[in-house]
Amino acid sequence: TLFERRYGRAVTPKLSCITNGYDGAGAAAAPGRRGAGPVFVHTGSMYGSESPAPFLQALGRLRRRRPDLVSAARVRLIGYAGDDLPLLERIVAAEELDENVALLGPQPHATCLAEQAAADVLLLFHAAVHTITISGKSFEYMATGKPILALIPPEGVQAQILREAGTATIVAHGDVAATEAALEAILGGRMPPPQ
Questions:
Q1: Which runs of E-coded beta strand occur in 44-164?
Q2: Phi and psi of 98, rounded to 5°?
Q3: Distance (Å) of CA 72 to CA 15, 41, 63, 99
Q4: How much of the chain, in percent, has pLDDT values that exceed 70?
Q5: Quick count: other Cβ atoms within 10 Å of Cβ 126?
Q6: N or C: which end of the chain has fewer CB within 10 A?
Q7: Where are the beta strands (DSSP E) in the chain?
Q8: Which helix (H) or strand (E) holds 115?
């Protein structure tokens, strides 16, 4: 394990593994649709290595190239953005995505579950430093049965779980061109196959 490599075998007897999981008891019923276009939803932290910036840049690039595809899309980014909020607001403005993107800030967990249930596509953002991270949000997302566009380390543990579940299109966080291609396929009605 990582701890054994870092601290030596002497630590092994002190280790216990508590697996990640999901409590489906709190799942919310899906509210009605919000409009004609597809709805993308992210819930959770949105700063630093969990930033949606590459996704927003890709959406902006696609809007310039294919405004017909992007015009009806709605993106609901729910969660704490901290000091990155001004950066995200600048990207939204610079990419002329004000009509498409809502930065909604932190919301109660029940609201997040309802938003997940109402989404067409769920968004997950983790940069390369999260190779061994498994987000509890992944389990909430998988429980909805909705497709996931995951900008995460393709070689990471979380990517492996999502691949085994067959539920996500995985793109490296920060790969704006690959994210743009995935968005073009999704918005064109051709959801990329899980990777």
A1: 74-78, 101-105, 121-125, 148-151
A2: -55, -35
A3: 50, 15, 11, 9
A4: 86
A5: 25
A6: N
A7: 39-43, 74-78, 101-105, 121-125, 148-151, 168-171
A8: helix 109-118
Residues 136-192 pLDDT 10s = 888 999 999 999 999 999 999 999 999 998 889 999 999 999 999 999 999 998 766
- Specify the pTM: 0.83
Answer positive or negative: Cα dihedral of 22, 186, 128, 166: positive
| End-to-end CA separation in angstroms for the chain | 26
Token representation of residue 172:
């490296």
43-75 exposure pattern, b = at least 16 Cβ within 10 A, e = fewer: bbbbbeebbbbbbbbbbbbbbeeeeebbeebbb
Strand partners, 171: 151
